TrEMBL record:
The gene is phoR. GO terms for cellular component: plasma membrane. Residues 41-260 form the Histidine kinase domain. This is Phosphate regulon sensor protein PhoR. Its main location: membrane.
């Protein structure tokens, strides 16, 4: 049983009579609340870096700082601007995903080339964050997935960048694609990071849901990555599996139905970097 909201209207109906109309408005009210929460979240997410940025501008305007101090301030300002850029980019991606019909099956992406593009980004991100991680991309099967290559890459990149961002130095990230016995394809991203408590797992794909707000921000997170992944996965008829436990790392896997796959005859394995 769940609570419902009923709107009741009384309309004049002939001599001294009234017609009572009732309507279940639960879904409408829920959508309204979600929209309001979303706008409040977005405003808050933009206001924080904007306040910091404005503070730095004011300092630079009012104090004559030595050159190296000035550079440090400018660098911090660039970081805040970048944070807002990532947020706006993710918001636009989400709104495109929510407002467009699912991609047709006309385009195909070789799993190997999706992984190769992610591998480069994963290594660059780890380097930029100054992290020592053992990053492994297992040799992919010669398979192509139908759908939008841009969307598929964005989903996989989000999972891989989360693994890199949340796993501390000395840890391991393994990305592997394999055919399951029933013909489906699993793209799995496993890490030896902090892991996630079971009560958080069902909520991770909600927009702006974070287990640890400050850690997400510190590592440049927008809180929208897994919401984007969820949409892409749904639009491709796939399934998102999250297997994690505190202290035991996490595995995020996308499982594609066999109907979305075809063998890729002429895929050449990219050279190791
Ligand atoms: P964010 O930008 O905050 O990373 P996401 O939507 O990508 O947003 O992820 C939501 C939350 O899920 C994160 O804030 C983090 O708490 C948790 N999370 C995601 N991936 C991992 C991971 N590999 N290890 C631990 N926690 C993770």
């Amino acid at each position: 049983l769940r609570p419902v909201r009923i709107a009741v209207h009384l309309h004049p109906y002939g001599e001294g009579r009234k017609l009572m109309l009732s309507r279940d408005v639960t879904a409408v009210e829920q959508a309204d609340t979600m929209r309001r929460d979303f706008v409040a979240n977005v405003s808050h997410e933009i206001r924080t870096p904007l306040t910091v940025l404005a503070g730095f501008v004011e300092t630079l305007q009012s104090i004559d700082l030595p050159q190296d101090e000035r550079q440090r301030y400018l660098q911090m300002m660039a970081q805040q601007a970048q944070r807002m850029q990532s947020l706006v980019n993710d918001l636009l991606t989400l709104s495109r995903l929510e407002g467009s019909p699912p991609p047709g099956a006309a385009e195909w992406s070789a799993v190997g080339s999706l992984l190769a593009q992610c591998e480069y980004d994963a290594r660059s991100l780890a380097k930029a964050m100054g992290k020592r991680l053992e990053i492994t991309f297992a040799p992919p099967p010669a398979v192509e997935v139908s759908g939008s290559p841009t969307e598929l890459l964005s989903a996989l990149s989000n999972l891989v960048s989360n693994a890199v961002r949340y796993t501390p130095s000395g840890g391991e990230v393994v990305v592997a694609a394999r055919r399951l016995d029933d013909g489906r394809l699993e793209l799995a991203v496993r890490d030896t990071g902090p892991g996630i408590a079971p009560e958080h797992i069902p909520r991770l794909t909600e927009r702006f849901y974070r287990v640890d707000r400050s850690r997400s921000r510190e590592t440049g997170g927008t809180g929208l990555g897994l919401a984007i992944v969820k949409h892409v996965v749904q639009r491709h008829g796939a399934e998102l599996r999250i297997d994690s436990a505190v202290g035991a790392g996490s595995t995020f896997a996308i499982v594609f139905p066999a109907a979305r796959l075809r063998p890729s005859a002429n895929f050449a394995q990219p050279a190791a970097t």
